[in-house]
Amino acid sequence: MHITGAWILLIFALLATAFMLLFLHLTKLGRFVHQRIPDRPRRRLFLASVSFFVTFVGVRLLVRSITHHVGPFGWVIIDGQHIHHLVWGILLLLGVGYCTLAEVGTGSSPSSIFLSRLLSILYGVGAALTLDEFALWLNLQDVYWARQGRESIDAVILFGAILAAGAWGAPLFSASRKDN
Q1: Are 4 and 75 in contact (CB under 8 A)?
Q2: pTM of the model
Q3: Which residue would you say has higher pLDDT here, 80 or 144?
């Protein structure tokens, strides 16, 4: 049986999202996160950061398995055209951006908080899918495993550092300001 990359990406995104949301609600570590990281915006930045790095690693492993013919995985091909995963990332980012403009998940009800967290996770997933192929949109050719593909890794590291600094660095900086 051959599973297309589109299904693999969808299944991976759904499982990763469900896992993260369940993790936040059902584990001791999730309760620790609730106690230590304020909900808005720190916890949203934390969720986006974690989903960004998990997705990046997952997609790199998936692409590697496809290129080396490991497992039942394959490329996303529609009408003979290979659809790169940055397309799905852009679509996710557009959807999350629209929801943000429509102020989805900004209330204090449980469903609003759930949507806020879901959008944060989907933002991280979309950003990882898009930036993983940064070198493609920079060079306008597929250089994923070529030397120029390193530009994607650099973009992921830079953006990931910004997300991580927002989630973890801001409380550190605000604590050091209070000490002075």
Answers
A1: yes
A2: 0.76
A3: 80
